[in-house]
Amino acid sequence: MGSVKTKRMPRAVREQQMLDAAVQIFGRRGYMAASMDDIAELAGVSKPLVYLYLNSKDELFSACVRREARALIAAVRAGIDPALPPDRQLWDGLLAFFTHTADHPDGWSVLHVQARTHGDAFAAEVTAMRAEAVVFVTRLIAEAAPGAHAGRDVAGLAEALVGAAESLAAWANTTPGVTARQAAATLMNFAWAGLGGLLEGRLWSPPRA
């Protein structure tokens, strides 16, 4: 009897296995400490095959950053119904964001820590993702606060909210017992309560020098 041939795994599936392994290694050990040997072993393939599919450690890391950024953006988009009021859209977006970062802590580490500190090319991917988030939040705030006293601060508020979400996700992922819903509620209360005061004209003025 002839030997039974094992069905070859499609290239796309094999690449995703490699990226899954690479995200785990990069996310937990950091870019510098990660080795192609460890990534190949975790993916269950040979190191030459990793190099065949993704030519270098830099290219592999860049592919990880792109994939994780796309996945995070897609998760947030999928969680939002544009027909809902701005406050509900913001809540749903925050909940989707914190749920995804909690479910994919290695991917968030790659985006929030590793990509920012290992070269302009990697950081640019994260910057593009962040810019998209800022545009979305800016629109929501502008729709919720069309008054004159909010208009001048909309861009700054959006930047502050996105930055707060990033920091809070990093904290939530390293603090036992903090759920995605709790993190989202914390930021929503902080942000929307403050925006409520802005809408009502209760503005804080710095003391005169």
Strand content: under 5%
Quick one: overall form?
elongated
CATH class category label of the domain at 65-199 = Mainly Alpha
CA-atom Rg in angstroms: 21 Å
CATH homologous superfamily annotation of the domain at 65-199: Tetracycline Repressor, domain 2
Total of DSSP H or I helical runs spanning 4+ residues: 10
The arrangement of helices and strands along the chain is: HHHHHHHHHH
CATH architectural label of the domain at 65-199: Orthogonal Bundle
| Percent range of helical residues | over 70%
Stretches with pLDDT under 50, minimum 5 residues:
1-6
Number of strands: 0
Cα separation of the termini: 92 Å
What would the average pLDDT be, to the nearest integer?
Answer: 84
From the helix content, strand content and strand pairing, which structural class follows? mainly alpha
- In this structure, how is the largest beta sheet organized? none
- The name CATH uses for the topology of the domain at 65-199 is Tetracycline Repressor, domain 2
Can you tag this structure with a few keywords?
10 helices, Tetracycline Repressor, domain 2, 209 residues, Homeodomain-like_sf, transcription regulation, DNA-binding transcription factor activity, mainly alpha
Q: What is the gist of this entry?
A:
By secondary structure, the chain is mainly alpha-helical. It has helices at 11-29, 36-43, 47-53, 57-78, 86-103, 105-114, 120-144, 148-151, 154-173, 180-199.
